[in-house]
């Protein structure tokens, strides 16, 4: 990935190309244009939330969602967007230095994957070795989770 690449700029470019379908387009496509527009907005929002969740300098939070209010799903989407922005501002005020979070997120993901693998393959009651492994993974996940707070 190039050093000049920016998730925020990519999201801005994607959002600027989203145009609500005209009524003639909706009628000509039997509503398919509206469904495609809706899915494109939901996809853009999901990508924006993913970028916002990963701490880095350019989170793409400046992406503006201009959704026409005549869509049923517009108000809930804008409401969720506002809540994520509010939480982000709170998090930024609490701790401006969250550079190492990606490591913790990866470690939690690894621990949870190991725990779920154990849960799928283990028969109860647990053998002593499996019991110790589960306890170790749970403790490790708890410590990592506490470090994220």
The assigned structural class equals mainly alpha
The helix fraction, in percent, is 55-70%
Total strands: the figure is 0
Tally of helical segments: 6
User: Radius of gyration from the CA trace?
Assistant: 21 Å
Element pattern in H and E = HHHHHH
Largest sheet: none
Number of domains in the coordinates? 2
CA distance, first residue to last residue: 30 Å
Strand content: under 5%
Average pLDDT rating: 80
How would you sum up the global shape?
A: elongated
Low-confidence residue ranges: none
Membrane topology: Single-pass membrane protein
InterPro entries: ROH1-like
Subcellular location: Membrane
Family: Belongs to the ROH1 family.
Considering the chains and any ligands shown, give keywords for the structure.
single chain, 149 residues, mainly alpha, 2 domains, elongated
Topology overview:
Elements: H1 7-16, H2 23-28, H3 32-53, H4 74-94, H5 101-121, H6 128-148
Description of the molecule:
Helix 1 (7-16) packs antiparallel against helix 3 and helix 5 packs antiparallel against helix 6. The chain is elongated. Helices cover 68% and strands 0% of the residues. The protein has two domains: 7-94, no CATH class; 101-148. The protein has six helices and no strands. With 149 residues, the protein is mainly α. The longest helix has 22 residues, at 32-53.
Q: Short description, anyone?
A:
This protein has helices at 7-16, 23-28, 32-53, 74-94, 101-121, 128-148. The protein has 149 residues and is mainly alpha-helical.
């Amino acid at each position: 990935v190039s050093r000049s690449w920016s998730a925020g700029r990519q999201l801005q470019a994607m959002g600027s190309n989203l145009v609500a379908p005209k009524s003639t387009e909706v009628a000509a496509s039997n509503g398919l244009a509206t469904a495609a527009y809706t899915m494109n907005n939901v996809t853009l929002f999901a990508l924006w939330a993913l970028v916002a969740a990963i701490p880095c300098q350019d989170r793409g939070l400046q992406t503006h969602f201009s959704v026409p209010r005549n869509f049923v799903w517009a108000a809930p989407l804008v409401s969720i967007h506002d809540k994520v922005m509010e939480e982000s501002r709170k998090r930024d005020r609490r701790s401006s230095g969250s550079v190492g979070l990606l490591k913790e997120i990866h470690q939690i993901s690894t621990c949870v994957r190991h725990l779920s693998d154990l849960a799928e393959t283990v028969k109860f009651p647990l053998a002593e070795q499996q019991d110790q492994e589960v306890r170790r993974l749970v403790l490790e996940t708890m410590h990592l989770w506490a470090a994220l707070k």
